[in-house]
Amino acid sequence: MRRFFRRNAAGYLFLSPWLVGFFLLALGPILASLYLSFTHYDMVSTPRWVGVDNYVYMFDRDRRFWRALSVTFHYVAIAVPLRLAMALAVAMLLDKGLRSIGVYRAIFYLPSLLGASIAIAILWREMFGLNGMVNEALAMIGITGIGWITTPSTSLYTIVILAMWQFGSPMLIFLAGLRGIPRDLYEAAEIDGTPKWRQFFRITLPMLAPVLFFNLVLQTIEAFKTFTSAFVISNGSGAPADSLLFYTVYLFNEAFKFFRMGYASALAWVLLIIIGAFTAVAFATSKYWVHYENERD
After folding, report:
1. Which of 255, 234, 259 is closest to 245 using CA atoms?
2. Quick one: which of 182, 134, 184, 185 has its CA closest to 158?
3. How do the domains of the chain map onto residue ranges?
4. Does residue 294 have a pLDDT over 60?
5. What is the pTM of this model?
6. Which CATH class for the 62-296 domain?
7. pLDDT tens across 251-271, in order?
């Protein structure tokens, strides 16, 4: 134990603000929500114990629950790979030693700095509206646009585009990873006449695998938690035709619109289990494609 403490004391010291905040501020509400998930609670009357009725209703009779799951999984499956691909592509461009690279980094990071704010969501809703900037630009080249937000078949992809636009955080992480790849590997590949596309698959991706794995886990978790953009763009209802009924939007409405706090707590715990399962699968499969420097040595 003494050896363990000596080796890990610095890490726990830096973690201590989060640990103190978790045990003093977060652990209590987490346990309370777990209890409430087994009750009928409307935030006015005393919680009434109903056992697993909330979970039975959720999986057996709640069609909107399955619709929210479908929309969220669809979004995660499309937005996360596209966002990571965009971030990696821009990071590779910035890794070429451009002049004023700090300015470019700031410009590309700015959308992520704005975050998932209400103002950005409102701007996006106006841009992709029937009379928005997107349709005005299409009209200039003779194309008649549609209501991208109000059409069920296209509404989800407007939020995917928003996610792709805010690629700054994974881009900076990718850029740091690219800077850590030894340049002599590329020089040796150039001498052997290896084409650029093969260098990317044989050098860049394998060496960048730990960073890619880190970004994949973080971005997947963030995608599952997407709320503000979907809520604002759909006016809080998941419209049109529940095409924007993200899981978090459905959870919010159950809790604060219909005051079914017990059922909303059950929804929250199911989301936690889903995110935990995806994270566990990612870690379990990482041993087949993620290799670290100490393992290679």
Report:
1. 234
2. 134
3. 1-28, 62-296
4. no
5. 0.90
6. mainly alpha
7. 999 999 999 999 999 999 999
